């Protein structure tokens, strides 16, 4: 008689993932870890960037970067429902890597994303990530063209790290008109720049605070 397997208590406590996926040296360890973590969840599990960030010490930017890696190499795709012209929930689909990039059991070492494999639709997604982070929004199409050229000179991770550093710099001008246009920033390879110079008005404020402190100390001595 045939055997029918019943449900067991341990059925959902194990995840299967191919060794070649976790040994794919084109991916960062961050991306490999995210892929393995996603695979531990059952189908129909609700997942999002915010939820993943809440489950780890990584921030949202690191999670998004890992997702982009997985999408570039075909491990992951995301589909969003469109119901009556309105966007619905996003479905995450794990899958075999891209057919044009088959993996060997021991793939060759490659530390960064191969820019030639970034498809045009992926370039737009990567640019949108950059655009959302950049502190000044102007000349979007020109910025996109410069962004595509920049990917020939640097990795996406380096560009994003640079724009995060730039946007969070305490010496970034408060007035938007004094902030570099995104296309200018990209064309100048500004992700390689160091911190912005200290603003003069900020230095004056510091000198004023020092003067006030000196006056308070003098009054105390009198």
Please give the order of strands in the largest beta sheet.
1-2
Number of domains: 2
The profile of the biggest β sheet is: 2 strands, antiparallel
Unreliable stretches (pLDDT < 50, length at least 5) are: 99-113
Rg over CA atoms? 24 Å
The overall average pLDDT, rounded, is: 75
Question: Care to count the β-strands?
Answer: 2
Q: Please provide the ordered H/E string of secondary-structure elements.
A: HHHHEEHHHHH
* Number of helical regions: 9
Distance between the amino and carboxyl termini: 103 Å
Which structural class do you get from the secondary structure elements? mainly alpha
Helix content: 40-55%
Q: What is the 3D form?
A: elongated
Strand content of the residues, in percent?
5-15%
